[in-house]
Amino acid sequence: MNHNSTIYLAGHRGLVGSAIHRRLQEKGYTNILTRTSKELDLTDQKAVSAFFEQEKPEYVILAAAKVGGIMANNKYRAEFIYDNIQIQNNVIHQSYVNGVKKLLFLGSSCIYPKNSPQPMKEEYLLTDELEYTNEPYAIAKIAGMKMCESYNIQYGTNFISVMPTNLYGPNDNYDLETSHVLPALIRKMHLGKCLENNDWESIRKDLNKNPISGIDGNANEEEILDILKKQGIEPTNQPINQSTNSSPRSVSPSSNRSSAQSFNRSVVINLWGSGTPRREFLHSDDMADACVYLMENTNFADLAEYSIPKEKQTKEINELINQAKDIQKNSLNHSITPSSNRSIAQSFNRSSTPSLYRSIDIPIRNTHINIGTGKDISIKELAEMVKEIVGFQGKIEWNTDMPDGTYQKLLDVAKLNGLGWKKKIALKAGIEGAFKSYRSSWLF
Known about the structure:
Blueprint: E1 7-10, H1 15-26, E2 32-33, H2 45-55, E3 59-62, H3 70-75, H4 77-97, E4 102-106, H5 135-155, E5 159-164, E6 166-168, H6 181-196, H7 200-209, H8 221-230, E7 233-240, H9 257-262, E8 264-272, E9 278-279, E10 281-283, H10 284-297, H11 300-307, H12 315-331, H13 344-349, H14 353-359, E11 369-371, E12 377-378, H15 379-390, E13 395-399, E14 408-409, H16 414-418, H17 427-443
Parallel strand pairs: 1-2, 1-3, 3-4, 4-5, 5-11, 6-10, 8-13, 9-14
Antiparallel strand pairs: 7-8, 9-12
């Protein structure tokens, strides 16, 4: 990509898209196309077609998706499969029709089987059944990845797919009814700390920014305590030693100041499961850096080579792959201009890469790239880390009557590392930054 290339970034305001947007700007890309969902409904086929026809982006990064945590995935199963498939179909197909040079599609590590061997290699895709709670979302993402792969093989497009692990960072979703585990932990620990400190000013600011089940900062204390209890954040009304919590406190104007200064509340936070499952977490800025790196340095032909076992890479196959690599590299150096009697799609279809792929008698599949750290942590260890960072002094209790989900979800990142990229942001430092970003979003 050149710094003045026209890049369409779909989903630029979410956790993933905003991080990629920042990274593109940091690297000097100046012609980034963005549209909000109100400006462009990506589930509307005609609207997406008109947008591509008018704007003619050279590169596309598809970060737009309907996302959520385990509760949202299980509750809104129909929306998760329908909306995501509609978005993917429209953007990927119009990228093909309009001769986009390269597209990057973002999936999710939930595409792998529920009981996949660990760490999860790209080749484990579709080898067993999926986790039931997020099956519709996973199927949608698998469809998008396979759509990119199939268009590449049949039409010679250069569409690559990446599968990030669990992400966190600025612009994350902190809605306790739909958020993923890490932002939910950050917010719950923060609200627990505010209750400990009798800091109703901060609680009300938090709820005004992110209401819970319709309850915002204008509700009375009884209503707020009730909704927090439903989210597992519960004061015991037992005083705790004030010396154990040196964090500054704000006192509600309606509170008795001398009473507030005399004690702090004891607070318990209840979390689902046993805390023993292990998860991998990647900062969104690292994810964005990996995505931009791959857009700049990796083509589908490179990934096709990875999909062929080394023991089956004959001299003839290597020659075919090398020809495909050369064609895709050269195609990025100039615009595809149709002749007067051909559409862009027809012109694009004349690429010789499809015949090269068809000449390889070994299936080309699992060409996506895992993006992760290669390290995981138990949910219990994660909760204790967040507790320390936030400064919550209370107790964490685990509700073992609730499901744990898959025990371990760790990505194998050997392919990504082999392509020249490794993570940079340590987990603790990343969470500290995420918490700071979260608080600043409603403090200012």
